[in-house]
Design a protein that fits this description.
- There is one protein chain.
- The chain is an alpha/beta fold.
- It contains 9 helices and 11 strands.
- Helix 6 links the parallel strand 5 (98-102) and strand 6 (124-129).
- Helix 6 packs parallel to helix 7.
- It is globular.
- The mean pLDDT is 94.
Protein backbone atom coordinates (compact mmCIF):
# COMPACT_ATOMS: atom_id res chain seq x y z
CA UNK A 1 0.00 0.00 0.00
CA UNK A 2 1.38 3.36 -1.02
CA UNK A 3 2.00 5.69 1.90
CA UNK A 4 1.38 9.41 1.77
CA UNK A 5 4.48 11.39 2.66
CA UNK A 6 4.52 14.38 4.99
CA UNK A 7 3.61 17.72 3.47
CA UNK A 8 4.15 21.37 4.25
CA UNK A 9 1.26 23.76 3.65
CA UNK A 10 1.60 27.52 3.24
CA UNK A 11 -1.57 29.37 4.22
CA UNK A 12 -1.53 32.65 2.32
CA UNK A 13 -4.87 33.65 3.83
CA UNK A 14 -3.22 33.59 7.25
CA UNK A 15 -0.36 35.71 5.91
CA UNK A 16 -2.87 38.31 4.76
CA UNK A 17 -4.69 38.19 8.11
CA UNK A 18 -1.40 38.55 10.02
CA UNK A 19 -0.46 41.50 7.84
CA UNK A 20 -3.78 43.23 8.42
CA UNK A 21 -3.56 42.79 12.20
CA UNK A 22 0.02 44.07 12.29
CA UNK A 23 -1.03 47.07 10.21
CA UNK A 24 -3.76 47.88 12.72
CA UNK A 25 -1.21 47.66 15.53
CA UNK A 26 1.25 50.10 13.93
CA UNK A 27 -1.41 52.45 12.54
CA UNK A 28 -0.17 54.62 9.67
CA UNK A 29 3.40 53.28 9.58
CA UNK A 30 4.64 51.83 6.32
CA UNK A 31 5.42 48.11 6.59
CA UNK A 32 8.76 46.84 5.36
CA UNK A 33 8.06 43.12 5.06
CA UNK A 34 11.14 40.93 5.25
CA UNK A 35 11.10 38.11 2.69
CA UNK A 36 14.79 37.20 2.73
CA UNK A 37 15.93 33.55 2.71
CA UNK A 38 13.01 32.60 0.47
CA UNK A 39 10.57 34.19 2.87
CA UNK A 40 12.06 32.28 5.82
CA UNK A 41 11.29 29.09 3.90
CA UNK A 42 7.69 30.05 3.13
CA UNK A 43 8.35 31.06 -0.49
CA UNK A 44 9.30 34.70 -0.98
CA UNK A 45 7.43 35.15 -4.25
CA UNK A 46 4.16 33.65 -3.00
CA UNK A 47 4.33 35.62 0.25
CA UNK A 48 5.15 38.88 -1.53
CA UNK A 49 2.39 38.46 -4.10
CA UNK A 50 -0.18 37.74 -1.39
CA UNK A 51 0.31 41.17 0.25
CA UNK A 52 1.82 43.32 -2.52
CA UNK A 53 -1.42 45.17 -3.24
CA UNK A 54 -1.92 46.48 0.28
CA UNK A 55 -1.13 50.16 0.88
CA UNK A 56 2.32 51.14 2.19
CA UNK A 57 3.85 47.70 1.60
CA UNK A 58 7.56 47.42 0.86
CA UNK A 59 9.84 44.42 0.85
CA UNK A 60 13.28 43.70 2.29
CA UNK A 61 15.69 40.99 1.18
CA UNK A 62 19.33 40.30 1.90
CA UNK A 63 20.89 40.16 -1.56
CA UNK A 64 20.47 41.78 -4.96
CA UNK A 65 19.81 38.29 -6.34
CA UNK A 66 16.82 37.86 -4.02
CA UNK A 67 15.53 41.27 -5.08
CA UNK A 68 15.82 40.33 -8.76
CA UNK A 69 13.76 37.19 -8.14
CA UNK A 70 10.92 39.41 -6.92
CA UNK A 71 11.32 41.81 -9.85
CA UNK A 72 11.30 38.88 -12.31
CA UNK A 73 8.00 37.79 -10.73
CA UNK A 74 6.38 41.18 -11.39
CA UNK A 75 6.66 42.51 -7.85
CA UNK A 76 6.73 46.29 -8.36
CA UNK A 77 6.81 47.43 -4.73
CA UNK A 78 9.89 49.11 -3.30
CA UNK A 79 12.58 46.56 -2.41
CA UNK A 80 15.60 47.20 -0.20
CA UNK A 81 18.62 44.87 -0.12
CA UNK A 82 20.24 44.66 3.31
CA UNK A 83 23.60 43.31 2.15
CA UNK A 84 26.69 45.45 1.90
CA UNK A 85 26.99 47.30 -1.42
CA UNK A 86 28.95 45.49 -4.10
CA UNK A 87 30.21 47.93 -6.78
CA UNK A 88 29.52 45.47 -9.62
CA UNK A 89 25.82 45.36 -8.70
CA UNK A 90 25.12 49.09 -8.36
CA UNK A 91 24.05 49.40 -12.00
CA UNK A 92 21.81 46.33 -11.70
CA UNK A 93 20.19 47.85 -8.63
CA UNK A 94 19.63 51.17 -10.37
CA UNK A 95 18.11 49.60 -13.49
CA UNK A 96 15.78 47.40 -11.43
CA UNK A 97 14.77 50.11 -8.94
CA UNK A 98 16.31 48.29 -5.97
CA UNK A 99 17.18 50.34 -2.89
CA UNK A 100 20.72 49.93 -1.60
CA UNK A 101 22.06 49.85 1.95
CA UNK A 102 24.77 52.44 2.69
CA UNK A 103 26.59 51.11 5.72
CA UNK A 104 30.15 52.48 5.51
CA UNK A 105 32.21 55.41 4.27
CA UNK A 106 33.52 53.17 1.46
CA UNK A 107 29.95 52.83 0.18
CA UNK A 108 29.82 56.56 -0.49
CA UNK A 109 32.93 56.30 -2.62
CA UNK A 110 31.47 53.38 -4.57
CA UNK A 111 28.28 55.32 -5.27
CA UNK A 112 30.28 58.42 -6.18
CA UNK A 113 32.33 56.41 -8.70
CA UNK A 114 29.11 55.13 -10.26
CA UNK A 115 27.72 58.67 -10.48
CA UNK A 116 30.88 59.90 -12.22
CA UNK A 117 30.62 57.09 -14.79
CA UNK A 118 26.88 57.27 -15.47
CA UNK A 119 25.45 60.51 -14.11
CA UNK A 120 22.94 58.39 -12.19
CA UNK A 121 22.51 57.77 -8.47
CA UNK A 122 20.71 54.71 -7.06
CA UNK A 123 18.18 54.96 -4.27
CA UNK A 124 19.54 54.13 -0.83
CA UNK A 125 18.95 54.00 2.92
CA UNK A 126 21.63 54.66 5.53
CA UNK A 127 22.15 52.04 8.23
CA UNK A 128 23.70 53.11 11.52
CA UNK A 129 25.36 50.70 13.93
CA UNK A 130 23.94 51.39 17.40
CA UNK A 131 24.76 48.11 19.13
CA UNK A 132 23.72 45.18 16.95
CA UNK A 133 27.37 44.71 15.82
CA UNK A 134 26.41 43.99 12.24
CA UNK A 135 26.80 46.24 9.21
CA UNK A 136 26.34 49.94 9.83
CA UNK A 137 27.94 53.35 10.02
CA UNK A 138 29.36 53.97 13.47
CA UNK A 139 27.43 56.64 15.33
CA UNK A 140 30.70 58.46 15.98
CA UNK A 141 31.18 58.84 12.20
CA UNK A 142 27.71 60.31 11.58
CA UNK A 143 28.90 63.90 11.11
CA UNK A 144 31.57 62.94 8.59
CA UNK A 145 29.13 60.60 6.83
CA UNK A 146 26.49 63.29 6.47
CA UNK A 147 29.06 65.82 5.24
CA UNK A 148 30.26 63.44 2.53
CA UNK A 149 26.72 62.63 1.42
CA UNK A 150 25.78 66.28 0.99
CA UNK A 151 28.95 67.01 -0.96
CA UNK A 152 29.43 63.87 -3.04
CA UNK A 153 26.07 62.25 -3.82
CA UNK A 154 23.38 63.52 -6.17
CA UNK A 155 20.37 62.48 -4.12
CA UNK A 156 19.67 62.29 -0.41
CA UNK A 157 18.84 59.05 1.41
CA UNK A 158 15.27 57.79 1.27
CA UNK A 159 15.62 56.35 4.74
CA UNK A 160 17.71 56.13 7.89
CA UNK A 161 17.62 52.99 10.01
CA UNK A 162 19.23 50.75 12.59
CA UNK A 163 18.58 47.28 14.00
CA UNK A 164 17.83 46.34 17.60
CA UNK A 165 19.78 43.53 19.22
CA UNK A 166 17.50 42.79 22.19
CA UNK A 167 14.07 44.28 21.50
CA UNK A 168 12.53 40.81 21.84
CA UNK A 169 13.75 40.38 25.42
CA UNK A 170 12.03 41.13 28.69
CA UNK A 171 14.76 43.58 29.71
CA UNK A 172 14.55 46.51 27.29
CA UNK A 173 17.33 48.63 28.79
CA UNK A 174 19.82 47.86 25.99
CA UNK A 175 17.21 48.44 23.27
CA UNK A 176 16.37 51.80 24.82
CA UNK A 177 20.06 52.77 24.78
CA UNK A 178 20.17 51.88 21.08
CA UNK A 179 17.02 53.90 20.47
CA UNK A 180 18.55 56.94 22.19
CA UNK A 181 21.68 56.75 19.99
CA UNK A 182 19.54 56.33 16.90
CA UNK A 183 17.35 59.33 17.67
CA UNK A 184 20.50 61.42 18.03
CA UNK A 185 21.81 60.54 14.56
CA UNK A 186 18.37 61.06 13.03
CA UNK A 187 18.15 64.53 14.59
CA UNK A 188 21.70 65.27 13.48
CA UNK A 189 20.73 64.78 9.84
CA UNK A 190 18.53 67.86 10.10
CA UNK A 191 21.61 69.99 10.82
CA UNK A 192 22.94 69.03 7.40
CA UNK A 193 19.57 69.63 5.71
CA UNK A 194 19.47 65.99 4.69
CA UNK A 195 16.03 65.10 3.40
CA UNK A 196 14.80 61.59 4.09
CA UNK A 197 11.37 60.01 3.81
CA UNK A 198 11.52 57.04 6.17
CA UNK A 199 12.99 56.33 9.59
CA UNK A 200 12.86 52.75 10.81
CA UNK A 201 14.32 50.62 13.57
CA UNK A 202 11.41 48.51 14.86
CA UNK A 203 11.63 44.79 14.19
CA UNK A 204 9.08 42.18 15.24
CA UNK A 205 10.21 42.34 18.86
CA UNK A 206 10.02 46.13 18.98
CA UNK A 207 6.56 46.12 17.38
CA UNK A 208 5.35 44.13 20.37
CA UNK A 209 7.62 45.61 23.04
CA UNK A 210 8.71 49.15 22.22
CA UNK A 211 5.98 51.44 20.90
CA UNK A 212 8.20 54.53 20.99
CA UNK A 213 10.45 53.01 18.31
CA UNK A 214 7.86 52.98 15.51
CA UNK A 215 8.75 56.27 13.73
CA UNK A 216 7.02 56.11 10.28
CA UNK A 217 8.10 52.65 9.12
CA UNK A 218 8.47 49.28 10.84
CA UNK A 219 10.19 46.12 9.66
CA UNK A 220 8.22 42.95 10.13
CA UNK A 221 9.70 39.49 9.73
CA UNK A 222 8.70 36.64 12.02
CA UNK A 223 5.37 38.19 13.03
CA UNK A 224 4.24 38.21 9.42
CA UNK A 225 4.73 34.43 9.34
CA UNK A 226 2.84 33.93 12.58
CA UNK A 227 5.78 33.37 14.93
CA UNK A 228 6.90 35.28 18.00
CA UNK A 229 10.55 36.44 18.00
CA UNK A 230 11.07 35.02 21.50
CA UNK A 231 9.26 33.63 24.50
CA UNK A 232 9.88 36.82 26.45
CA UNK A 233 7.51 39.07 24.50
CA UNK A 234 3.82 39.38 25.14
CA UNK A 235 1.75 38.57 22.09
CA UNK A 236 -0.61 41.51 21.73
CA UNK A 237 -1.38 40.95 18.05
CA UNK A 238 -3.60 38.20 16.68
CA UNK A 239 -1.34 36.11 14.43
CA UNK A 240 -1.43 32.54 13.16
CA UNK A 241 1.32 30.33 11.74
CA UNK A 242 1.49 30.61 7.96
CA UNK A 243 3.22 27.22 7.68
CA UNK A 244 1.80 23.90 8.85
CA UNK A 245 3.09 20.32 8.65
CA UNK A 246 0.90 17.32 7.99
CA UNK A 247 1.70 13.62 7.66
CA UNK A 248 0.21 10.20 8.16
CA UNK A 249 0.55 8.53 11.54
Amino acid sequence: METIGPKVYIHLDRCKSNFENIQKKVSDCALLCVVKANGYGHGSIAIAKSIANYANVKFAVFSIGEALELRDSSIENDIIAFSRIQPDYIDVAYKNNIILNLSSLDDIQNIKSYILKTGRCPRYHIKFETGMTRLGVEVEDAKLFYEKITKELIIHPEGIYTHFATADEGDLSYAKKQLKKFKEVVDLAKNYKIKYKYVHCSNSGAILNLRESYFNMVRVGMLLYGALPSGEVQNNISINPVMSFCGSI
